[in-house]
């Protein structure tokens, strides 16, 4: 290309014959998969896709790319030539749908318009072409309704109210019983609604309809519900959506037509079989909206055997091709099957584990790929308690088990109330006839969702499964009255708003009141109370067992526990912990021992201080003997005392009142007065940044050496009893190497004394906690005196961001999340750009000084799935987390290693 030539403009529109499933970034998931199915020779209606790049230009500038209109026109001309029809022509019109399609599935969150091309003129041509006047006018009223709501912003309830009046006038209850004359009147009513509410006539020009619909789909990327869904699912906000323009095929042409959704396996359980919903004489939105109750997909065999058999063959083809559970949308037009969409289907946590192992057994994927098909969030969900099936409870209904879990809460009947009550600390169950995308914020706020309509493919079911939220759908025996805020159950009992109900997403059962819960079988498996392969373990535990074995074989990161006593240590060991990464010794001094520490801190004389230390030493030694016994043969990192000082001092207000009362009564109060003066002297405005950690150890002589002696003597005692103690001593809150050197010198001297006194050689590693920015920035120096670093990411996050977790989470985090400043709380998932960069830099600098430096993390991020992947990438040796999160960390460590291997191979 010469200097004067302009670079070739990027292609903005792709025919379905031009793309493939690898182009999701450009064509979105729907467009890429429509192209893939076309390439496979499956019956896909012809069409084309406008790229996400066109959307990004539009969203950035407010205008479509200059070349877009011409490219769309060229592809529309080609489509018209292929179909032998012109968009919206009078006699035999071509009609198209305009659908969104982002890279990641966002069910129901963005806009779709069907039947574009219909007008007052072309509706007559469609009636003649189809030989069915009722069908044509039904399609036209659907277009005006969808276009009015989606493109022109008309309140959708106005159309629904007009539709209800039409059914009342005809004295029918379902849309399909309206006749052509009724639908003609409805079209007139809908057009009047558009004129009044939008201030313009419904457009009769088919190209104007299409162009406005394309813009509406672009705009819907930044709609409130789409942004909320992306925040919930952590989908990037800068991807944009593709737009798919597809020639219409009609499922509402009579009893030999219909529409459906199918899954190649049950998305709730993972079992193989025929799963899905079918609705005769309907268009696609009718199924997912849950407005009309569907029939099970298996009934299609008796309705239309030819289409059913063809669909089964296609489903097998797609599952083998995608090597995963596929979610399929299809339409049958007068006996002709058409594929409208496929995607890798959302599934429950249990189904994810079962399907992954099934596909390994079928030879479709290997163990490494199986690890990528599940995640730690799903495993955590499987560890939640379940309802006690033996409890005496009142079952009042049963629906479809759409998304598992045991949810208890107060019944609420709209999203606004769900959000309001949830923010006030109430647990709620959102009860609706059916949900729609506008209910998303209420679904997020609720413990679970209950609907009286819809099936496993309804909006409520699909979105709930994606969020891991408990859901029961299609509980038809429950009469939900959202206007009166009540639900009537069989037998006439009325559940008012605020009454407690329980729903079981695994069985579909609905109960009055609160049902007691029992431990999950997955937790029982991890605790050794249920064994994989045992008769009562079931397929789920077997699948979890196998996936965890894959992960443990793959992972490089070791997983330790945060545990402060022998009981927690033993539980952590059962969960698979490979040691203790954080034993917080300050937790050992709460309760009865608090007074001893208080006396030590407030001691005026060396004798008082020594007396307190001598009283504490045997208690500390006993703690460590128990801990080292529980973790025999595994490393135990003991953090020396790190309390904010105020936790071990009397409350200053309470003490002041006591002294004032004593003075007013002229009672003796010398001890309290002396104590108050000491507390005033030591009082801090911000204790979290005050006299704590290594500073406390340096200011109070003998405190740290007492703890080191207790650790050393306990280790010596265990070795004498033929145990294998592997203690590590961690100095907290170090900001400069000089602090560490002073404490280390004292500790080494104490250890030598214990070795000499017991005749036992001890190997006690001494390291530090990196939890201050200065420590991270001077890691090369600190590594000269440390044998290991453990990153305390909770405090490091506070000190890097400059805010106190206890104060800010309640005050402004919600606003920051809603405004997109935070994608997720930095205390939940590590801030890679800020805190993470310090961790990476400190790890690198520390190892440059000391190549054998052991690196770990002991903040709460150690059990967070996304953070575990980051710690793998920066080369840490282990993560440490609470006992309950150990299986999650093990799984994610395996996934991180497997993913890294896959990247290397690519």
Question: What is the topological layout?
Answer:
Elements (H helix, E strand, L loop, with lengths): L12 E3 L8 H16 L7 E4 L1 H10 L6 H16 L12 E7 L9 E5 L5 H9 L2 H18 L5 H15 L9 H19 L7 H15 L3 H10 L7 E7 L10 E8 L6 E9 L3 H6 L5 E2 L3 H4 L1 H18 L3 E8 L2 E9 L4 H13 L5 H6 L3 H7 L3 E2 L6 E5 L1 E4 L2 E7 L2 H9 L4 E5 L7 H6 L2 E4 L7 H9 L2 E4 L5 E3 L4 E3 L5 E3 L3 E5 L4 E4 L4 E2 L2 H6 L11 H17 L3 E5 L3 H9 L5 E5 L9 H9 L3 H25 L4 E5 L12 H13 L5 H13 L11 H6 L3 H18 L5 E6 L5 H22 L6 E6 L2 H5 L1 H4 L5 E4 L1 H9 L3 H7 L1 H6 L13 H18 L4 E4 L7 H9 L4 E4 L4 H20 L1
Helix pairs in contact: 4-5, 5-7, 6-7, 13-20, 15-36, 20-36, 21-23, 22-23, 23-27, 24-25, 27-28, 35-36
How is this structure best described in words?
The chain is an alpha/beta fold. Helices cover 47% and strands 17% of the residues. Strand 30 (854-857), helix 35 and strand 31 form a beta-alpha-beta unit. The chain folds into four domains: 13-247, Dna Ligase, domain 1, CATH 3.30.1490.20; 258-347, D-amino Acid Aminotransferase, Chain A, domain 1 (2-Layer Sandwich); 386-518, Glucose Oxidase, domain 1, CATH 3.50.30.10; 555-590 and 610-644 and 696-899, TIM Barrel (Alpha-Beta Barrel). The strands form six sheets. The protein has an eight-stranded mixed β-sheet with strand order 12-22-21-14-15-16-17-13.
């Amino acid at each position: 290309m010469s200097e004067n030539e302009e670079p070739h403009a990027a292609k903005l529109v792709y025919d379905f014959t031009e793309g493939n499933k690898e182009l999701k970034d450009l064509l979105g998931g729907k467009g890429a998969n429509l192209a893939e199915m076309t390439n496979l020779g499956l019956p896909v209606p012809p069409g084309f896709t406008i790229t996400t790049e066109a959307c990004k230009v539009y969203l950035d500038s407010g205008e479509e790319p200059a070349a877009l209109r011409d490219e769309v026109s060229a592809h529309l001309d080609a489509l018209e030539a292929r179909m032998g029809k012109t968009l919206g022509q009078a006699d035999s019109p071509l009609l198209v749908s305009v659908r969104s399609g982002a890279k990641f599935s966002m069910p129901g969150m963005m806009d779709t318009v069907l039947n574009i091309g219909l007008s007052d003129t072309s509706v007559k041509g469609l009636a003649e072409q189809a030989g069915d006047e009722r069908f044509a006018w039904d399609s036209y009223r659907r277009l005006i309704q969808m276009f009015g709501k989606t493109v022109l912003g008309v309140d959708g309830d106005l159309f629904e109210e007009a539709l209800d009046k039409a059914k009342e006038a005809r004295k029918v209850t379902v849309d399909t019983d309206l006749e052509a004359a009724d639908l003609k009147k409805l079209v007139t009513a809908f057009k009047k609604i558009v004129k009044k509410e939008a201030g313009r006539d419904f457009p009769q020009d088919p190209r104007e309809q299409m162009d406005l619909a394309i813009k509406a789909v672009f705009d819907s990327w930044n709609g409130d519900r789409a942004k909320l869904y992306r925040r919930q699912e952590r989908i990037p906000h800068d991807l944009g959506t593709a737009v798919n323009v597809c020639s219409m095929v009609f499922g509402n042409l009579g009893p030999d037509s219909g529409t459906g959704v199918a899954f190649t396996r049950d998305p709730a359980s993972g079992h193989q079989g025929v799963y899905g919903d079918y609705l005769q004489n309907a268009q696609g939105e009718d199924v997912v909206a849950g407005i009309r109750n569907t029939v099970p997909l298996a009934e299609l065999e008796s309705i239309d055997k030819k289409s059913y058999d063809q669909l089964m063959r296609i489903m097998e083809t797609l599952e083998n091709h995608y090597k995963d559970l596929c979610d399929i949308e299809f339409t049958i037009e007068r006996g002709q099957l058409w594929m409208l969409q496929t995607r890798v289907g959302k599934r429950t946590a249990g189904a994810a584990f079962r399907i992954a192992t099934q596909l390994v057994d079928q030879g479709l994927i290997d163990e490494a790929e199986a690890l990528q098909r599940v995640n730690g969030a799903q495993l955590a969900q499987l560890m939640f308690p379940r309802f006690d099936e033996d409890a005496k409870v009142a079952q009042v209904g049963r629906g479809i088990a759409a998304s598992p879990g045991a949810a208890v809460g107060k019944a609420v009947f709209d999203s606004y109330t769900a959000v309001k009550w949830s923010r006030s600390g109430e647990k709620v169950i959102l009860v609706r006839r059916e949900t729609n995308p506008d209910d998303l914020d209420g679904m997020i706020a609720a413990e679970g969702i209950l609907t009286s309509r819809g099936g496993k493919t309804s909006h409520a079911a699909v979105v709930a499964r994606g969020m891991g939220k408990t859901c029961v759908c299609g509980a038809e025996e429950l009469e939900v009255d959202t206007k009166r805020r009540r639900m009537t159950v069989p037998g006439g009992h009325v559940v008012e708003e605020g009454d407690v109900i329980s729903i079981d997403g695994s069985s579909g059962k609905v109960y009055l009141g609160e049902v007691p819960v029992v431990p999950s079988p997955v937790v029982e498996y991890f605790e050794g109370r249920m064994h994989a392969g045992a008769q009562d373990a079931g397929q789920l535990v077997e699948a979890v067992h196998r996936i965890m074995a894959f992960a443990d074989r793959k992972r490089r990161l070791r997983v330790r526990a945060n545990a402060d006593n022998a009981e927690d240590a033993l539980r952590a060991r059962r969960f698979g912990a490979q040691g203790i990464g954080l034993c917080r010794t300050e937790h050992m001094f709460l309760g009865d021992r608090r007074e001893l520490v208080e006396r030590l801190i407030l001691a005026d004389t060396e004798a008082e201080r020594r007396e307190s230390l001598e009283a504490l030493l045997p208690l500390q030694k006993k703690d460590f003997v128990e801990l080292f016994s529980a973790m025999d043969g595994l490393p135990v990192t003991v953090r020396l005392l790190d309390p904010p000082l105020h936790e071990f001092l009397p409350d200053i207000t309470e003490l002041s009142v006591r002294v004032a009362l004593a003075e007013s009564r002229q009672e003796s109060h010398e001890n309290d007065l002396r104590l108050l003066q000491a507390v005033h002297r030591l009082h801090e405005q911000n204790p979290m940044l005050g006299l704590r950690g290594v500073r406390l150890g340096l200011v109070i002589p003998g405190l740290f050496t007492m703890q080191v002696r207790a650790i050393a003597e306990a280790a010596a005692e265990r070795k004498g009893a033929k145990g294998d103690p592997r203690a590590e001593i961690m100095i907290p809150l170090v900001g400069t190497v000089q602090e560490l050197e002073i404490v280390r010198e004292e500790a080494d001297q104490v250890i030598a004394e214990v070795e000499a006194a017991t005749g036992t050689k001890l190997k006690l590693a001494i390291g530090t906690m990196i939890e201050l920015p200065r420590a991270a920035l001077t890691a090369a120096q600190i590594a000269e005196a440390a044998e290991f670093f453990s990153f305390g990411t909770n405090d490091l996050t506070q000190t890097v961001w400059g805010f106190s977790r206890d104060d800010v989470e309640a005050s402004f985090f919600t606003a920051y999340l809603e405004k997109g400043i935070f994608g997720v709380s930095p205390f939940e998932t590590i801030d890679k750009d800020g805190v993470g960069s310090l961790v990476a830099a400190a790890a690198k600098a520390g190892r440059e000084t000391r190549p054998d430096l052991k690196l770990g993390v002991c903040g709460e991020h150690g059990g967070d799935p996304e953070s575990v992947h980051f710690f793998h990438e920066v080369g840490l040796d282990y993560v440490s987390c609470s006992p309950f999160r150990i299986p999650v960390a093990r799984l994610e460590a395996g996934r991180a290693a497997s993913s890294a291997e896959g990247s290397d191979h690519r």
